[in-house]
Amino acid sequence: NAGIVGATGAVTGASLGGYTVTNVFDNDIIAAVDGTTIQNAKSTSVNAESDIDILNGLASAGLAGIGANALANVLVNVINNNVTAYIADSYIQGGSVSSFAKQSTNVNNNAYAGGAVGAGANAVINTVVNSFENNLLSYIDIDNTSLDGVSTVSVAADSDENLRNTNIGVSVAELGASIGSNTIVNYIEDTTKAYIDAKGKSMNASG
User: Fold this and answer.
1) d(CA 182, CA 101)
2) Residue pair 118/176 in contact by the 8 Å Cβ criterion
3) Helices (H), the chain
4) How far is the CA of 58 from the CAs of 55, 129, 200, in angstroms?
5) Distance CA 27, CA 135 (A)
6) What single-letter DSSP state applies at residue 95?
7) 3-class secondary structure, 142
8) Below-70 pLDDT ranges, the chain
9) Are strands 37-38 and 96-117 parallel, antiparallel or unpaired?
10) Neighbouring-strand partners of residue 16
11) Closest-CA residue to 139 (of 49, 29, 27, 33)
12) What is the pLDDT of residues 62-118, one digit of tens each?
């Protein structure tokens, strides 16, 4: 969570201020049953999950009397997660068999930019960039895994992203120019896969 307040002021000269906040999540999350023997099981499940919650608050204000004032702020959220759940090279006897990969991202950005100018120039600008590139993979490699008398076989992958942006820009000019603005850029590119790799082999399950 990031809560930032920035302010600059110029009376008879020039003022320049600003800040940059960067949140980076770059994780490899793996859950696996690999090279394992499981006998007389009621159930065999593999779950890999990523859960990220981000709350950002930006408040920026600038004041110019007889001069120039600029306040520029940048907030960047970068999330690059690899979430993998799989079963391979194993012997599993009985029960249900499942593989599940999930990623959940919740981002709440609140940006406020305000500026007031007397007889000069004032600019207050907030920029927010959200970049999500997540790879989810859930699979069972039947080609190298023996499933004996299992009831059900299931694979699933779930990607859930909730993004909320709130922008407020206010500017007041008396004998000059004032700008208060917010810009938000959202880039989301996820890859989600769930499969059973049998390569021509058959599966027998009682359920």
Assistant:
1) 36
2) yes
3) none
4) 10, 13, 56
5) 10
6) S
7) helix
8) 1-19, 58-72, 111-125, 167-182, 200-207
9) unpaired
10) 70
11) 33
12) 544 555 555 667 788 899 999 999 999 999 988 999 999 999 988 887 766 555 444
